[in-house]
Amino acid sequence: MNLRGEPAHVGRHCGANEYDISEAGVAFYSEALDDRDALYARVAPPLIFHSECYAFVGEWYLRNLVGNLHAQQDWELFAPIEVGQKVRTRSTIVDRYHKRGRDYVVNETDILSASDGSLRVRGRTYQSFLPEGETLSEKPSGPKPKRPPFPTAEGRDLRPAELRVDERRCWMFSGPGRNYHTDREEAKKLGFPNIVVQGMLSTCLVSRVMQQEFGEGWLAGGRMSVKLTAVVWVNERLTCHARVRETVAEGSRQRTHCDVWVEKEDGTRSLIGTASALEATSE
Hey, which CATH number is domain 1-131, 3.40.50.40, 3.30.230.10, 3.10.129.10, 3.40.50.10810? Predict the structure, then answer.
């Protein structure tokens, strides 16, 4: 059952919204992420709706919130979102499964042009929950399985992106309301020692690295699939890295695949995964 006490079944329509893409909204995102690409004079950051899935959280989150985790995030970029246009969003439960003692719900959020219905961006958010009635203390303890070596790509490194996530950035990214991503006291109510930086922020850093390298080839053709592997706390500095794995033909163009990861100052990785973009070539 979802937070409303209704079945969170595959195919459930969770909700829809409509937005105008304004220069002010783009500037707010740019300030929050310190992402100031010249392309933003005419197009919005592709992940400007990074948290739209949470606008409908009551429809797809399961009732046992203790120990719930944002486990994985996928993004597909099909076309730029232009400044000044109107977009529609829609949110749907597209998958449910049980794995290693946890229940997973996958929410798909689409961003579409309001004028012609064309798909611009698609995000898939994988959230895991303990079964109803279970608490963290009831889960068996033991060593976690060892992660395979990462990255294994051996190509060139892309230019990294850095960001220190202070309280103001937390509010800009996860506000305006008080919650455990924006307010220390709210975090403590849930048992956290400090503000927890929202996992979506690390995915936006990946987008920044890929866009500064591939430009339009990221905005129209970019893909990302990443796992969130460690909590990020307020005032930590993050560095996003990408390393080329291979470049392969895709029609008349070339797609470059990369290993991507986000590291904290102590070397802990908060995100690992893959991303790819189209190279700018003549058609």
Answer: 3.10.129.10
